[in-house]
Amino acid sequence: MNSTAARQALLALTVLYGLLIALLAVLDVAALGIVAAAGAVLLGLGWAFAGRLTRGKPQG
Question: What span, in angstroms and rounded, lies between the C-alpha atoms of 12 and 50?
């Protein structure tokens, strides 16, 4: 998987994560904070890792 595909996958996962958090908030799920924190950490690590892979490489 190249860096562009990885970044597109991360973007899709980020959007789905946002929709999941919104759905859990509407449903008033008690574990919303835990799910939000865990997902944010995992997505943050994913974006950081993707950024490290593309650092210093020309875009295009």
Answer: 14
Kindly report each contact of residues 3-11 with a partner whose C-beta sits within 8 Å and lies 24 or more positions away, as own/partner.
Answer: 3/50, 3/53, 3/54, 3/57, 6/50, 6/53, 7/50, 7/54, 10/43, 10/46, 10/47, 10/50
- Both tokens of 58, joined, read 């020309």
Query: Residue 15 and residue 9: Cα distance in Å, rounded?
Result: 10
**Is the predicted pLDDT of residue 57 greater than 90, yes or no?**
no
| Cβ-based neighbours of 24, under 8 Å, separated by 6 or more | 31, 32, 35, 36
Average pLDDT over residues 8-23: 95
| Alpha-carbon gap, residue 3 to 11, rounded angstroms | 12
